[in-house]
Design brief:
Largest sheet: 8 strands, antiparallel, barrel
Radius of gyration: 17 Å
Structural class: alpha+beta
Order of helices and strands: EHEEHHEEHHEEHHE
Number of domains: 1
Oligomer: single chain
Strand content: 25-35%
Number of strands: 8
CATH architecture: 2-Layer Sandwich
CATH topology: Alpha-Beta Plaits
CATH class: Alpha Beta
Helix content: 25-40%
């Protein structure tokens, strides 16, 4: 079963640009051949440029770790203030074309008690999904559940331009979040910012 791996790195003070440059430089831009895996996406947080996020999809956790063993990430880790934080998520729902170019991302982590999970999940799959995907410029939306904690959900929304993304996070984002709070969920903004690269997963350090 496919797994989505989310890796969050935080650069040391003054090393933000160096970390981004190194991550991008470690890969070569070659086109995907045929209907290959979904592209890995590399994002930088708008509010804290020290935070860089990679999102990639793999056939399994084993496939991810097998590829991870092929990469020496010591030079990347040396630029980071803390060890990378990884989350392994199972896709629950996806709307849009996985190969659609994405200019920016808005993402949240939603946590709830077990007794509220179905209520929260139903809302994310219905009303919240309809609201977000109906906004101008929304080109994809994914919903994922943490492998180790089914009450921890990740929601990713992709936007076709920085303009539409900025409009959503400044004017509209509180509406779906308030609806989740009303259903007993805790909502934590994860990473909101521009896309730095869209890459073949096998080429990017895990």
């Amino acid at each position: 079963m496919a797994v989505t791996v989310v890796t969050r790195r935080q650069a040391r003070p003054g090393q933000e640009e160096a970390l981004v440059a190194l991550l991008r430089g470690l890969i070569s831009a070659r086109p995907r051949q045929g209907a290959g895996p979904a592209p890995t996406r590399l994002f930088q947080a708008a509010r804290d440029p020290a935070v860089v996020l990679t999102v990639s999809t793999w056939d399994s956790c084993e496939a991810y770790w097998e590829t991870a063993r092929l990469h020496d990430t010591s030079t990347v880790d040396a630029l980071c203030a803390v060890p990378p934080q990884r989350g392994f998520y199972r896709p629950l729902d996806f709307d849009g074309d996985v190969y659609q170019p994405v200019a920016a991302v808005s993402s949240i982590v939603v946590e709830c008690r077990p007794e509220a999970r179905q209520r929260v999940l139903d809302h994310l799959l219905r009303e919240s999904k309809r609201f977000v995907t109906s906004q101008p410029g929304c080109v994809l939306r994914g919903l994922y559940a943490d492998e180790d904690d089914p009450c921890r959900l990740l929601v990713l929304s992709g936007w076709d331009s920085l303009t539409t993304w900025r409009r959503f996070v400044s004017d509209m984002v509180d509406t779906p979040r308030a609806a989740l709070w009303a259903r007993g969920a805790r909502v934590e903004p994860f990473v909101e910012g521009p896309t730095l690269a869209e890459l073949d997963p096998a080429l990017l350090p895990p």
